[in-house]
Design a protein that fits this description.
The protein is mostly helical and about 375 residues long. It has one domain (about 85-335, about 355-370). The protein is built from 15 helices and six strands. It has helices spanning about 1-30, 45-55, 65-80, 90-95, 140-145, 150-165, 175-185, 195, 215-225, 230-240, 245-265, 270-280, 285-295, 300-310, 325, and strands spanning about 120-125, 135-140, 320, 340-345, 350, 365-370. The protein has a two-stranded antiparallel sheet with strand order 1-2. A two-stranded antiparallel sheet has the order 3-6. A hairpin with a 7-residue loop joins β4 (about 340-345) and β5 (about 350). The protein is elongated and about 70 Å long.
Length: about 375
């Protein structure tokens, strides 16, 4: 009986996995697109789905956009690599929502389908999680290739290596870009409060990225106060709910950040203002005064301040607060981003996704914005 049960479970996983490949081929046909040639071999579930879809849809197909093409490409890549893909929420519409004109890592303008390193690509920010809402960001192919399977602390190690050896860049990125990449990846990596409180906000979170560390959520919230009108009123209200022991540090930090905003000039707006607020964190005084404030606050106090700002409309439009389990839904953290099924790959060979140790989930919520200026929580 145990053997039969095991066989049935394995067979069920294989069938489920073939269904995914079939659906990918089906959706190619529904948009009148041909799957890559590697998936047109006999017996490929992608080919089977594509052929079935062509027979049904004929010329009655849906409009193709670059976001549709990227959606199909992501699903196919995830399937081949045995990675989890959250198919209900990660849609062409979602990919349009997270689209940006400039790479957050290299700051270069993004191109599309030119075959150059400046082309836009969509990548998982936390490599130990799947393709899911809150863990995806648009960046250049150059940044994506350099990121590879690094973790956030690996990126910091590259920065130290570049600086120690007097190099101008490594793997196509300079030290400034590697620093921004490290901060970007830290947003979706649960870290100790004392550790994350010492990180400068060198890059503002892209739209729909989920912030898992309350200190960084507060850091982002305070920085964004100076990107829209009415900052004085909002900052004064926030100051009134900061714990008394940290109130002086709060006022000093906000005045320091305001000085950097004023230095950017009244004409700064949109992407230029966003970059100016990121560059404010290059100043040692901003970082020292932020660390003094953040380390006087506990993680719970940071959470409460961000929650208060959300309730009172003091945060950017669309910010939402989600419990950790809801924020990381579909991330497949228990398997470090791998799907729990067989992966035949492009040529039909089968392999089991490797078993990985689980990531610990903390009870603290995640923060972000459903839409709007910078970060998001779905």
């Amino acid at each position: 009986m145990p053997q039969a049960t095991l066989f049935d479970a394995t067979e069920h996983e294989a069938i489920a996995f073939d269904t995914i490949g079939f659906e990918i081929g089906w959706d190619h046909a529904h948009h009148r697109l041909v799957p890559p040639v590697a998936h047109l071999h006999a017996g490929s579930p992608v080919r089977q789905g594509w052929q079935a879809g062509r027979a049904l849809f004929g010329t009655r197909t849906l409009r193709v956009t670059r976001h549709v093409r990227k959606w199909l490409q992501l699903r196919l890549n995830a399937w081949v690599r045995g990675r989890a893909f959250e198919g209900l929420a990660v849609t062409p519409h979602f990919l349009a929502q997270i689209d940006v004109a400039e790479c957050p890592v290299t700051r270069e303008p993004l191109a599309h389908a030119t075959g150059t390193p400046s082309d836009a690509s969509v990548d998982r920010v936390n490599n130990d999680a799947g393709y899911a809402v809150g863990n995806l960001a648009v960046m250049s192919v150059r940044a994506n290739a350099a990121k590879a399977d690094h973790a956030w602390h690996d990126a910091l190690a590259v920065v130290r290596e570049i600086e120690a050896h007097g190099r101008t860049e490594l793997d196509g990125l300079d030290a400034a870009a590697w620093s921004r990449l490290a901060v970007l990846m830290s947003f979706v990596t649960p870290l100790a409060h004392a550790q994350v409180a010492c990180l400068p906000l060198l890059v503002l979170p892209p739209n729909r990225l989920r912030l898992l560390n309350p200190a960084q959520a507060l850091q982002t919230l305070l920085t964004l106060q100076f990107t829209r009108p009415g900052a004085a009123r909002r900052v004064a209200e926030l100051a009134g709910v900061v714990p008394p022991a940290a109130r002086d540090a709060f006022q000093v930090f906000m005045h320091t950040l305001l000085a950097r905003r004023l230095a950017a000039g009244p004409a700064a707006e949109g992407p230029a203002l966003r970059r100016a607020m990121e560059d404010a964190w290059l100043h040692p005084l901003v970082n020292r005064r932020w660390q003094r404030l953040a380390l006087q606050l506990s993680e719970a106090e940071c959470e409460r301040l961000v929650q208060y700002a959300g309730r009172r409309g003091l945060a950017a439009e669309g910010w939402r607060w989600l419990p950790r389990d809801a924020a990381t839904e579909g991330w497949a953290l228990e398997s470090r981003g791998y799907a729990c099924h067989e992966s035949p790959g492009a040529e039909g060979s089968s392999k089991r996704a490797p078993a990985r140790p689980s990531l610990a989930r903390r009870a603290s919520p995640a923060i972000g914005a459903a839409q709007g200026v910078s970060c998001s929580l779905s």
